[in-house]
Amino acid sequence: MDAQQRLVDELRTHALVIGEVVLSSGQTAQYYVDAKRAILLPAGFTALGELVAHHARAWGATAVGGLTMGADPVACAALAGGFAGKAFFVRKDVKPHGLSRRIEGPGLTGQDRCVVLEDVVSTGGSTVRAIEALGQEGREVIGVISVLDRLAGGSEAITVAAGGAPYVALTTIDDVYPERPDRP
Q1: What is the pLDDT of residues 91-148, one digit of tens each?
Q2: Hey, what CATH topology would domain 45-176 get?
Q3: Handedness of CA 60, 65, 67, 72 (dihedral sign)
Q4: Which one of 55, 80, 164, 169 is least enclosed by Cβ atoms within 10 Å?
Q5: What's the DSSP call for residue 64?
C-alpha cells in the first residue's frame, strides 16, 4: 500500500467524526475530520511525512510550515519524512514577549522558498492568513499542501492568496468519506 492510501486509511479510521460540528469558519457541518487524531499516530505521521517531504523536495522548497496548530504536526512530519530544510510555525498574532516574532523556528531569509502547510482546508482562511504573514515578511510562497481538503471552496482562495503557486491536497473528503450525504 502506498503512502497516500495509508494516509486515507488512517484518516478514515481515526479522524472521521460523524455528527454536527461547527467549523473554524463558523459554518455547521454534519461530519468533521480531526486530522490530528490520525497524523499524530505512527502510521499516519509516517505516511504524511513521506508525502509532504516528496512534494517539498519536488518544488525545491527550503522551508515548510503554516499557521499553528494546523501546520505544526504536518511540518514536523515533513522533517521526519526526510525533508532537509527548515520548519516554521506562524502565530496568529505577534508574540508579545521574548523575541516578539510572528514566525517561529529557524530564521527565514529572503532566499527561502516556503511551502505553506495545513491539516484540513474548508474555506482556506487559516492557510490564507499564513500566506499573508509570510508575504508581510517578504517571504516567497512556492506551494501549499493540505492533509485533507473538504472541497468547500478553500482551494480557490488559497490559489489566489498564493499568487498562483500550486496547491496540493494529499487527500479530499471524497477519499475519506465518499458516502457522505451531502456529496454532489
Answers
A1: 987 767 777 788 999 999 999 999 999 999 999 999 999 999 999 999 999 999 999 9
A2: Rossmann fold (3.40.50)
A3: positive
A4: 164
A5: E
